[in-house]
Amino acid sequence: MPPKPPINYVVQPTPSDYFISRGNGSEEMNFGAVKEYGDFVPNDRMYIHSRAAAPKLDVAAWRLHVGGSAVAEPRSFTYDELLALPSVTLRRVLDCGVNCRAFFPKVSPYGSLKWLPVGWTQWHFGAVGATEWTGVRVKDVLDAAGLEQAANAEFISLDSITTTAGKLPYSQVIAIDKVLADDTLLAYEMAGEPMPIDHGFPLRAIFSGWGGNSAVKWLGRIEVSKDPLPLSHFQRNQVLAGPDYPEEILATVGPVRSALELAENITIFPGDQTLHGRAWSGAGAIQQVEVCIEREMAPGRWMTVWDPAWRAAKLLHEAEPMMWVRFEIGWKNAEPGHYRLMTRATDEAGRIQPPPEEMVWNQHGLGYNGHAPLELSISPMSNMP
Ligand SMILES: Nc1nc2c(c(=O)[nH]1)N[C@H]1C(S)=C(S)[C@@H](COP(=O)(O)O)O[C@H]1N2
Ligand SMILES: [Mo]
Hints:
Blueprint: E1 19-21, E2 26-29, E3 48-49, E4 64-67, E5 75-77, H1 79-83, E6 88-95, E7 128-137, H2 138-143, E8 152-157, E9 161-163, E10 166-168, E11 171-175, H3 176-179, E12 184-190, E13 193-194, E14 204-207, E15 219-225, E16 239-242, E17 245-250, E18 257-260, E19 266-268, E20 271-280, E21 286-298, E22 301-304, E23 310-312, E24 314-315, E25 325-334, E26 337-347, E27 374-378
Parallel strand pairs: 4-15, 19-27
Antiparallel strand pairs: 1-2, 2-3, 4-5, 6-7, 7-12, 8-11, 8-15, 9-10, 12-13, 12-14, 16-17, 18-20, 20-25, 21-22, 21-23, 21-26, 24-25, 26-27
Residues 49, 96-98, 127, 212-213 line the site of molybdenum atom.
Pfam families: Mo-co_dimer, Oxidored_molyb
Domain Oxidoreductase molybdopterin-binding: 53-228
Keywords: Metal-binding, Molybdenum, Oxidoreductase
């Protein structure tokens, strides 16, 4: 039998100027192109993380079903009925919970077979983006269905993912406080356009500040429960687990992270440089970003270029909660050589990106935000303008 062609889960084109493909349905944003973007990533350049083919839904036949033991009048909403509810627009980062996973040590540092190497998609910096999301509050939708005392709710997709437990729709079980928060949305627009198919047309969930994995796409049903529903099949891989975690904890609030607007391993001309980047946090606004540059003096021997090693970057506008802030830093008279650049941001909750050796290892490679090196070369024979 001829080999089956690979299934592409993604519908839109993903040209390599703007995307780095990390396997089926995992399209990372190429940070080398981000300098051209304003606050929002253009819709057709937003990273994509899909575990199965995007279902092509006919919006006229599509319904959002709302039910469960905590709902007095289970009902279905048409697309137009949702559009008729009060609309809310939020500027928010969407940052995959396992963004930057590739920087985690590949093997557990504990040397025990029980803790398997961190596998799955090897994202670098770009499983993140920001845009303006427009939709309705989940609270308004649930109130319209007669919400009663509830513990949590399951948000269930219309996709179909091949798992060890058979074919399952993607889903997320979320505590009721977060479900009812004023900035929890069912979004039908992204940057003023109907939700693109790869991002969940016609409707997806947005839990402000939480990992992108919570943002269920192609939503079909919300089950609201009096008694707590267990975590979904997918969430069991979205818990912090490892020798340093006596109990598994569901990863929710996004970490403080930052990245330079540069592709990895490029070569640039010597001389004065102005570096740009972005920093974001699920816990609030960014307060500070610092940059450290190291030069490779001999293979594997790195020396800091500045003294002290870290220099504060300039934030280019006022930082907003759960939205990225753009920053800039000068690098005078950069000489030919091989370098690695690192950034570290601090958010208003006082969280700061740690050195890699202070990262608490977890089995699923969630939440990496240690200093991550971006290597580049400086040469008179540059391949970049
Ligand atoms: N139905 C469905 N929703 C999903 C996913 C998925 O695989 N299927 N992936 C989640 C993950 S892990 C992330 S990071 C975000 C990515 O959203 P995006 O593709 O719009 O960037 O969608 C979330 N919602
Ligand atoms: Mo993700």
